[in-house]
Amino acid sequence: MEKRKFLLWKDVNISGGLLGEKQRVNEKVTIPYLFQSYEETGRFDFLKNGWNIHKKYEPHHFWDSDIAKLIEAAAYTLITNPSKETEERLDNLIEAFEKKQQSDGYLNTYFSNFCIEYRFTDLMMMHELYCAGHLIEAAVAYYEASGKRTLLNIICRYLECINTHIGKENGKIHGYDGHPEIELALMRLYHVTSEKKYYQMASYYIEERGTKPYFFEEEAYAEKIDITKPHREIYDIGSFYVQNKKNTDNINPMMIPKARQERVYKWYLPSKGAFAQFSANAPVRELKEPAGHAVRAMYLYCAMADLAEYDETLLETCRRLWRELVDKQMYITGGIGQSQECERFSYAYDLPNEGNYCETCASIGLFMWAKRMLCLELKSEYADVMERALYNGIMSGCSSDGKAFFYANHMAMYPKQYTEGSYVIQSEDRISPIRRKTFSISCCPANYARLIASIGGYFYSVDDDNLYIHLYNESSIEYCFSGIKTKIEQITDYPREETITILINPEETVKFGIYLRIPGWCRQWSCLVNNEKQKLKSKNGYICIQREWKQGDKILLITRMEPVLYVANPKVRQNSGKIAVMRGPIVYCMEEADNFTELSDFVIRSSEKIMVESTKTFEGFPVLCMKGRKTDISEWGNKLYQDIHEKKQIDVIGTAIPYYMWANRGLGEMLVWINAE
């Protein structure tokens, strides 16, 4: 298996460009805003002081994970913007976690505050190991950024406790978490500490998952829960509080576990099997396709890819799941997880536009998995998916000002469904026609913040003799090849512009290879070295320039960027007769603010050239103008139906902007897939 390693986020300087701009907004606005939001919603108070029943906030059993992701995000900023204030803020939170830790190492504020005797009794739904996983990732990030080991030591004690209770040995719980996360976190900890026990724990959770008898059934039987009863929603302290808010003085938090036992455990998805919602319907090597909760699946696949570096038998499974996902269930934006119901995948080629889910966290999980696959084998399609998800399905999750967020990322928006519709599910804050300041379940904002803060760690990988450049943005690194310190700089405004300049400055002449990804969307490209055109062929989507490099050497890569019309596989019934528009890796959409109402009536003349209006831009991206037609509605009056021969059309120009920027100008219609002649 190929052996390459990605350079750490702290070794890559994102000096400008689109991602540099996003990092600055993230650092100066989004992360401070999340600290404020977590303070106002009681997350920090719950960690430090427990729960006061008269407070207005509603604690959740996964709040530890929210705080952990925020610690992780803030830790990444300490390299680009060292701040004693940020360090002190993080140290105070870490101190609170240390005080909350039980004498045997156990650490979960929800159980510690309410029902410690019920710990490890409901691994399927109560997110204990999921929260532990995010604390591990926070500990690793803060250690790498600051050198401080306090949180790392805390989490290592917690892992000793977990390992005492859960594992393959007799007398232990032979189980795993309902929401994968600890597995990939343990692998990350293993890479930092080289402690083999963390690798072994991650391997156990993955190998045990989905084996029979099903652990989640046995867990239910142990708690005397009748799994044959109809489905009942989970009762956490928040929902219990809401249901009893008229009698808050009489709430006893110890009642919660008893109420919790009323729901059914046996999640069954048609054709997928029992517990497919948790990717636990079969041993991992037997999984045939992505199923169930999209984020759970992505985090599991990340861990499987991590383990595949040491156990190649997992690689074929990862490849199979990858093909089934990107070929049959991935949106053109890199969004995944079509169904609002249980935040899950539906089935192959089912890609609805209105009412789709595409959780921001799911695209982030796909991005993380793609990087791990790229570690295993050098194929540009993995980096292509990273790029597609990043610039479309992930960046759409945060507003331009950095203070509002999408949980679900819709592919089409007709606001009346939300303002005048009758669907109860659309009243949920996660399924919103506009970005929201906060959510009752708030995983996405901090997940977005930690990814953008650490984005440099996804750009470059190296082996003994080569540098691999996977993503393009203004950035720089320093690395030693054959013992010679070499500075590499990208000078580019990609993906807004098509030209990428790479400067190579070794301290003395040195030979190594530079691999450049040719994006999958790119139909025409050229490469020059020191102004001499190169005759190169790409292999697996990369070109390789192998030579002796000296100070002042320069590579110029030009990726021709023209608007391109895409069609979907005919099996995607929702997009039959429709096209989507991309320029480079950027998916465009039509938005009411630039056009007219009833966007679904617009028909593009696909034979006409799309005009690039560079004088009008959105965050530096040009607006695209498309010739088309729409119905002359003035002729209809109050008729509901009309003879087709009476229908009159008028010529119009449709305007499209980058999809990730929609909904920054208020409520309105939007669509990605446009009717075509």
From TrEMBL:
Organism in which the protein naturally occurs: Muricoprocola aceti
Protein's name according to its UniProt entry: Glycoside hydrolase family 127 protein
Span of domain Non-reducing end beta-L-arabinofuranosidase-like GH127 C-terminal: 566-675
Pfam families: Beta-AFase-like_GH127_cat (PF07944), Glyco_hydro127C (PF20737), Glyco_hydro127M (PF20736)
Keyword Hydrolase (UniProt): yes
Entry keywords, A to Z: Hydrolase
Non-reducing end beta-L-arabinofuranosidase-like GH127 middle domain span: 467-557
Domain of life assignment: Bacteria
GO molecular function: hydrolase activity
Domain (Non-reducing end beta-L-arabinofuranosidase-like GH127 catalytic) ranges: 11-456
